[in-house]
Amino acid sequence: MTEKETYRLPPHPVLREYYPDEDTRRRKVRALFDASGAHYDWINSVMSLRTGERYRAEALERAGLQAGDKVVDVGCGTGVLAQKAAEIAGPEGCVIGVDPSPGMLAEARRRGVTVVVGRGEQLPLADGSADFLSMGYALRHVADLIETFAEYRRVLRPGGRLLLLEIAPPRSRLGHWFLRLYLKRIVPAITWLGTRNPQARLLMSYYWDTVEQCVPPEAILDALREAGFEEVKRHVLFGIFGEYTARRPEEEHRDTRTTAGEPA
């Protein structure tokens, strides 16, 4: 067995309440997102108390996104982060959203986002084709962080920047308890009352379980460094919202592991 086959870092263990193995996970999670696409923006608006879009724009600016940049937004969902990136990149820039869920991509197209079907582990894009790569709250849905980060490095040009937005439970027991109550109980209940969609309710319950079971932030930072990124940092707001930023080196000093996909 090769090193690449043995050295893997799933973002969380198999959640047997929802699926028995990785192949089933991929199909089932995609089906949940497909069924929830039409409701997802409403759910996110309620869950974030209508602050989510403003926060995303501010995070992109903090990470160094500039006018004219070529941007890839991975796990773009309904296109909220991609749309904010397009507003910053402006008419001289270019934003492409990538997601495996046709239901989510249909909503992103309604926002005017250019989209392609794909997964973070195997992006249908050429080497060095992006100045900036973003991913908003979707890191928990890839199969392997090592493979995914190697792929992100491949697609970014030398000097290109990376932004990953993700949630982690607070360190305090009380904070953890409140966040669990909100995301595991209250948000799914509101989702059911507002949509009457059982798949959307299940997706939001699953959302919390992936947050709670996700590898610690330190493991994500280490995986980014292992993939060859530099200036790896995590900025935290309210003890919950993490902004992981990194940069592909201008000059390459060493080879990284074999990439997951070939250029388009």
Could you give a quick summary of the protein structure above?
45% of the residues lie in helices and 19% in strands. The protein is of the alpha/beta class.
Poorly predicted spans: 1-5, 254-264
Helix content: 40-55%
Strand content: 15-25%
Number of domains as seen in the coordinates: 2
Describe the structure.
With 264 residues, this protein is an alpha/beta fold. It has two domains: 30-49 and 171-213, no CATH class; 51-168 and 215-247, Rossmann fold (3-Layer(aba) Sandwich), CATH 3.40.50.150. 45% of the residues lie in helices and 19% in strands. The protein is built from nine helices and seven strands, in the order H-H-H-E-H-E-H-E-E-H-E-H-H-H-E-E. The protein has a seven-stranded mixed sheet with strand order 3-2-1-4-5-7-6, sandwiched between helices. The radius of gyration is 18 Å and the shape is globular. Residues 1-5 and 254-264 have low confidence and may be disordered.
